[in-house]
């Protein structure tokens, strides 16, 4: 009898918990009886995208039992299997998306990448949401600037899509190292030059006792500086090659300035050198607790570096390390906090590495536009944000429900303030020339020669320009043929 009572109580509790969610779907005279199908186009290759369903649609389906969700893959399965055969032309993701959105049975809702929005808007393929937002008095004032202002920027001041989740990066810093050096802590929206100057002032020591000032990545497992540093250059809109992918554009004053700055970080020993992986492995395998240091693969948690660029999902690891420090030998906890990523004077409100998750709009050719908007409104509403705010790795877009977990105290607004970088969608070019990314590998090799002192910056850029032009010419003649980096053929 007791078990029956418990089951009954649990059932009642479950019903009470879901009543507010369902109730919010029964307002405004909405038809909740007539069976209908809502077609949602996703970036998946599968018509049964379980991850997307669990992430975004399950709550809506529970609250709207008359609505059947049908997934529409916007990508062709052939994209999964690498470049096309020689002589065979493959459609770009944008071309595939446009075909699906204008086809005979188009999706009502489409999930898009931020970079794709301008072209879709320009081609009138997304409905403007502002009239519906106004009509339904849907409040967007609580959205974080990183999301809503970024979306408006892509739509020339108008809203054509909404994203309920996002992830971003910030600058984490070790308060203890700053206090020991007698240097003021970093602040929000410092310029990159100001941060690099702080790095110079806080760096000290030599050899294994060296305390570094800054790193683009806490992971010290290899040559991460060249690629990680793109978060520095991204807001400057530097291009490796022209829009046609036929001519390199790296032999320029702007590229030279960026490379000299990055070179200085390494030659001045402001950023850590790659760790000896074999030595680290031997220390871990030795069984000698004196040789092994917790988090020795993490330059920030090992207190080797004063400032580091991190993604939001790393916050949990940092907080847990400090919380459980008493259980770890050879680990000393320290006070820390975060500020926004540094900015360039040319773009004082723009920071790199902001990813909008679940960015969705209403297809202009939707057969069921009302339910499409209702769904977008639902997953971007307060109830959805409240229920999803405890997730890991991503932040909800509504500021009210963004709070540090487990009592951790830090400047969480550092992750929500800066606007995303508006990079163009190059998917068509990379589809037409699948191996065009190889020109970046030339740049990496030339940069290493600069750091090692074998080349001056401008000479390295000129060589990259010349060798890259030769590679782009070969790709123009045969777009689908890989190029041997050793021979250039």
Automatic annotation (TrEMBL):
The keyword Signal applies. InterPro entries: Bact_solute-bd_prot1 (IPR050490), SBP (IPR006059). It is found in: Cell envelope. Keywords: Signal, Transport. Residues 1-22 form the signal peptide. One of its GO terms (cellular component) is cell envelope. Pfam families: SBP_bac_1. Belongs to the bacterial solute-binding protein 1 family. PANTHER family: ARABINOSE-BINDING PROTEIN-RELATED, SN-GLYCEROL-3-PHOSPHATE-BINDING PERIPLASMIC PROTEIN UGPB. This is Family 1 extracellular solute-binding protein.
